[in-house]
Structure to design on (126 residues):
């Protein structure tokens, strides 16, 4: 079974993603910040990480940078909050998303999530 870690400081976003992804047959783990996510990644074999950029304790951009050093082949999707990420610095969201395999923009839709996840998982490691 494909394992996906969902990382977002917003419980409702994590619940939405869990519901959508489990409904499509994926195994889902959760983290509320980058520190929790790194602990999950070290404990589990994962196929994909979906992460928000802004979170408490350790944000998504820090986590993505750390993952690229330790787990270069791990597939990542950055979730961009258009109002926050792009109004507070358009380049930050773009740069972080470039280090991920893909990005999605909030508000998320189930169809967009599943399409992006399937596309990223179908790609060979690059």
């Amino acid at each position: 079974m494909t394992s996906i870690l969902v990382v977002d400081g917003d419980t409702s976003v994590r619940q939405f993603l869990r519901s959508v992804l489990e409904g499509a047959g994926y195994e889902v783990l959760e983290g509320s910040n980058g520190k929790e996510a790194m602990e999950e990644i070290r404990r589990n074999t994962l196929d994909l990480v979906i992460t928000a950029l802004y979170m408490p304790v350790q944000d998504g951009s820090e986590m993505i940078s750390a993952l690229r050093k330790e787990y270069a082949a791990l597939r990542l999707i950055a979730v961009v909050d258009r109002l926050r990420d792009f109004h507070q610095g358009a380049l930050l969201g773009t740069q972080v998303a470039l280090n991920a395999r893909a990005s999605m923009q909030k508000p998320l839709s189930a169809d967009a999530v599943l399409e992006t996840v399937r596309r990223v998982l179908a790609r060979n490691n690059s």
